[in-house]
Amino acid sequence: MTYRTRFAPSPTGPLHLGHAYSALLAYDRARLHGGEFLLRIEDTDTQRCKPEWETLIYEDLHWLGLEWETPVRRQSEHLEDYDRVLDQLAARGLIYPCSCTRGDIRAALSAPQEGAPLVGPDGIVYPGTCRGRDLDSRKPGDALRLNMRKAVEAIGNTSNCGFIENGPDHTGTHQLDAETLISGTGDVVLGRKEIETVSYLLAAVWDDAAQGITEVVRGVDLYEATFVQVLLQALLDLPTPTYFHHLLIRDEDGKRLAKRHDSKAIRLFRQDGASPEDIRRMVGL
Ligand code: GLU
């Protein structure tokens, strides 16, 4: 099978050194394996994604010396696909509508007997307030949550499901664990159908399969999310790629770079006369 990987940024701000590292590493691994590097634009969040950021992504990556197949897959052009997947999960009774706000969730968890809220890869573990609702009770704007217990039951034996990690941390084979998924991750949000938003958890799984990705290269901050994504692959009968979660580029204070770290934007290094080789050196490649 030909090696295929991708870089999948969301156009919500300028790419910074952390993105440069991720993209260059994926590109280098594709070359190393005589395979392909693809670019995918993850632009389902219509509030935060802007065309000017997308244009800048293409400019920055070309400047870094990367090449990719066009047209590029843009998630905003595939919303019906994600909708169909949600319908499929709904037909199997695996998702339910949820109208809880963050405040509702915090309030439900602040009952004295609850202790500190548990935080999973998708944020605070949902206390299950809406779990009993059926889909007919769905109101505009409701989130659609995966019933994790039912999802785990639907795939049968979780120990048959797992993935191979090729990155520097957690290297090796990992199996899903039913109890960790149910109590440590909980009922993650997969979409909000009426307003056509899908969670990146689901969209990325669908797209990785659609694009024939054999290895996902991305930051180690998404390592925990991989367990949910592998579960979704099993539920949807999609192949599981291998994963390479790389270490994160940090700022001077040791904090991971975020989009607001404009000072580390590739665009600014370009304007200051840095070369692509300088960027490679800065990120340790
Ligand atoms: N779009 C995600 C991000 O920009 C990346 C998701 C992935 O690589 O699977 O963080």
From TrEMBL:
Keyword Transmembrane helix: no
Similarity remark: Belongs to the class-I aminoacyl-tRNA synthetase family.
PROSITE patterns recorded: AA_TRNA_LIGASE_I
An example Gene Ontology biological process: glutamyl-tRNA aminoacylation
Coiled coil: none
Protein's UniProt name: Glutamate--tRNA ligase
Gene behind this protein: gltX_1
Record keywords, A-Z: Aminoacyl-tRNA synthetase, ATP-binding, Ligase, Metal-binding, Nucleotide-binding, Protein biosynthesis, Zinc
EC number, as in UniProt: 6.1.1.17
InterPro entries reported in the protein's UniProt record: aa-tRNA-synth_I_CS, Glu/Gln-tRNA-synth, Glu/Gln-tRNA-synth_Ib_cat-dom, GluQ/Sye, Rossmann-like_a/b/a_fold
A cellular component annotation (GO) from this entry: cytosol
Domain named Glutamyl/glutaminyl-tRNA synthetase class Ib catalytic: residues: 4-107, 190-283
